[in-house]
């Protein structure tokens, strides 16, 4: 592009700044060009698979393809609600995911409040450095470590419990203990990282509020109750409503790396079920129907969550 | 600041003790497997090792680092991480710049935003995506690992909000007046100003690529192409040892537990190495990026 041409477009552009209806292709084509790689990749890998969802309404046979596989209407969804196994899986997902959502809200807030009381900056920083770390390790690594540490035959956790006279616990082989382990280990991995946003909110509270309360004779507990907690409310509402969208995400990575056939009954979730039935079992249509069921509900919940966050906390992502 | 009562002082001490213990639980598992990996076979097999090696030996590490399959997977892991990070970061920076413009400056911005947010909310699911990758002929290629996730909408939002809040609008306008085009503005103004935010995203992407294992498991049928995370998953979680071609005499001298611990620790080592850099940036990056102007 020649210099004179650029100056021309520029002078036209400055007037275009105020004219809202023009596309300004001459000046803005680079913006479209910059977006092209992202748009193209999103199209291929996110939009192209969408029509594949039709297989949820078919009896899909890979060798017949989408166009020749027989249509079966809602039969796949019928299975979903009549199979005892499928109902159990949905139930497991709901229980595990909602407990995770609740605790992943409460624990980080409590942790942020406690850490906020620490006045020694060096100690505070060290604590933060250590508690953020597990978030960055994968469930393959942590799964490997937990399988070893929680083993019934002399795993370090059972050895420790044994020193208090507690019988070895089959953490990953007993359904109820499995759920407990899944939820606890998830809290352990994420609480520090989830606390970042609350720590930022705590740092943003106007110090004059505290000074005024001291003049009024408030003690530290009263300050937390009447200043700190109310100040955290907006961000808590945002996090809580956005977490709504995760109510069917019980943690595919985590469960796939920790579970075994002994705990399918109480530990199998929608995502692991889709993987086993679909990719391992070859029931493409049924697995897609289960996945679609999950996506649709999650989609509704996420939209609801954003609406609520916008309404009650004036939150927008853009 | 406020009147320090006796009960508050007691609380403070208990609080510090509690937080210290909590922090220790966050690294104790890693320290435990590190200790096991450096322990001799009898102690490791008998579960005697706590947080300090017993009869220190590097035999397990030596075996792991001499194993060809392991090294190949390690190399694939690095290759995948490097390629995936470069592609993803480049695409994200370009798109975030365009989307950071105001609606009235860039007509069509809203449509693009909707286009990207939609894929964050709704996707075809596991099976249709798998069939697509298969039809594209990408099974058994590195592209199946690095391309599908290259557009990370979360990172895109983070970076575009960073651009909007941290690059002064006047700088933009001055450059436009001087005749700079969008490409020039992006590379001479936005990129230098936003290095911390871009470092955050680069590090997040690196960690994500390094930790990914599931895509390798389903899209690669040739286990010789597995990146380390996938390799470790089949080895440690699925207990499939066929890929680790180890001489049976050799393994009988060693503790399988110690060898596995060494492998797990090496798998987490790259994360531990980038973590100090990561930690310096991400708090600021996240907080700034998530706040709307």
From TrEMBL, chain A:
Keywords: Cell membrane, Membrane, Transmembrane, Transmembrane helix, Transport
Keyword Membrane: yes
Topological category with respect to the lipid bilayer: Multi-pass membrane protein
Pfam families: BPD_transp_1
Transmembrane segments: 89-115, 127-147, 191-212, 224-248, 284-309
Subcellular location, record wording: Cell membrane
InterPro entries attached to this UniProt entry: MetI-like, MetI-like_sf, UgpAE/MalFG_permease
Top-level taxon: Bacteria
GO biological process: transmembrane transport
Record's GO cellular component terms: plasma membrane
Segments forming domain ABC transmembrane type-1: 90-305
Location (main, coarse): membrane
Membership in a protein family: Belongs to the binding-protein-dependent transport system permease family.
Name of the molecule in the record: Putative aldouronate transport system permease protein
Lineage: Bacteria, Bacillati, Bacillota, Bacilli, Bacillales
TrEMBL record, chain B:
Bilayer topology term: Multi-pass membrane protein
ABC transmembrane type-1 domain segment(s): 74-275
Signal peptide from the UniProt entry: none
Subcellular location: Cell membrane
Highest taxon above the source species: Bacteria
Keyword presence, Nucleotide-binding: no
This protein's GO CC annotations: plasma membrane
Membrane-spanning ranges: 12-35, 78-99, 111-133, 139-163, 183-207, 258-278
GO BP terms: transmembrane transport
Keywords for this protein: Cell membrane, Membrane, Transmembrane, Transmembrane helix, Transport
UniProt xrefs under PROSITE patterns: ABC_TM1
Family recorded in the similarity comment: Belongs to the binding-protein-dependent transport system permease family.
PANTHER family reported for this sequence: ABC TRANSPORTER PERMEASE PROTEIN MG189-RELATED-RELATED, POLYGALACTURONAN_RHAMNOGALACTURONAN TRANSPORT SYSTEM PERMEASE PROTEIN YTCP
Protein name: Putative aldouronate transport system permease protein
